[in-house]
Amino acid sequence: MAGIKLEVVSAERIVYSDEVDVVIAPGIDGQLGILPHHAPLMTTLTMGELRAKKANEEFSLAISGGFLEVRPDRVIVLADAAERAEEIDLARAEAAKLRAEERISHPTPNLDLARAEASLRRALTRLKVAGRRKRATQPKV
Ligand code: ATP
């Protein structure tokens, strides 16, 4: 089956660029599935997991919001930040999660709750995406 080119770009770098069979992105209004020959589209992404399938391999990226454009020959994701599962620093994500949880559960008068919640969502998404990496490397029984 002819695929579709997926390009995931952050302000810092090209995070992913390859041909895939299907993309499932965290759209602002819910999961967005894109197959080859999808109609042109521009939409906003929320913090979440972007999944894609290439041959029989499924992989996952953590996306910190951004924009997605479907063109006739490619899907372009401009992400605020994005990491492939294997790039995620688990200890850093755990620390960010604990920090955000601590701020939310012991609020100070000048707490920016929305910011703490967004930080928690980023950390939880990173942990989830990194967890897929671990499962993928476990031997099949
Ligand atoms: P932290 O509180 O740990 O800095 P953050 O959510 O504030 O996390 P971001 O502002 O979303 O971090 O990202 C800043 C940069 O750091 C981006 O390039 C992002 O890809 C990278 N990054 C953030 N957390 C991780 C992580 N756990 N593993 C790998 N890269 C990360």
Short note summarizing the structure:
Helices cover 29% and strands 44% of the residues. With 141 residues, the protein is of the alpha+beta class.
Overview of the structural elements:
- The longest helix has 25 residues, at 113-137.
- The protein folds into 2 domains: 4-85, F0F1 ATP synthase delta/epsilon subunit, N-terminal (ATP Synthase, domain 1); 88-137, Single alpha-helices involved in coiled-coils or other helix-helix interfaces, CATH 1.20.5.
- A hairpin with a 3-residue loop joins strand 1 and strand 2 (14-20).
- The radius of gyration is 16 Å and the shape is elongated.
- By secondary structure, the chain is an alpha+beta fold.
- It is built from 2 helices and 8 strands.
- Strands 1, 2, 3, 4, 5, 6, 7 and 8 form an 8-stranded mixed sheet that branches.
Structure keywords:
141 residues; alpha+beta; ATP Synthase, domain 1; 2 domains; 8-stranded mixed beta sheet; 8 strands; binds adenosine-5'-triphosphate
CATH fold name of the largest domain, please? ATP Synthase, domain 1
CATH architecture of the largest domain, by name, is: Sandwich
- Domain count: 2
The span between the termini is: 30 Å
The total of helices stands at 2
- Rg is 16 Å
The CATH C-level class name of the largest domain: Mainly Beta
**Inertia-based shape:** elongated
Q: How many β-strand runs?
A: 8
Mean pLDDT: 93
Strand content: 35-45%
Largest sheet: 8 strands, mixed
Query: What ligand molecules are bound, each kind once?
Result: adenosine-5'-triphosphate
Low-pLDDT runs of 5+ residues are none
- In N-to-C order, the SSE pattern is EEEEEEEEHH
- Helical residue percent band: 25-40%
Q: What structural class results from the helix and strand content?
A: alpha+beta
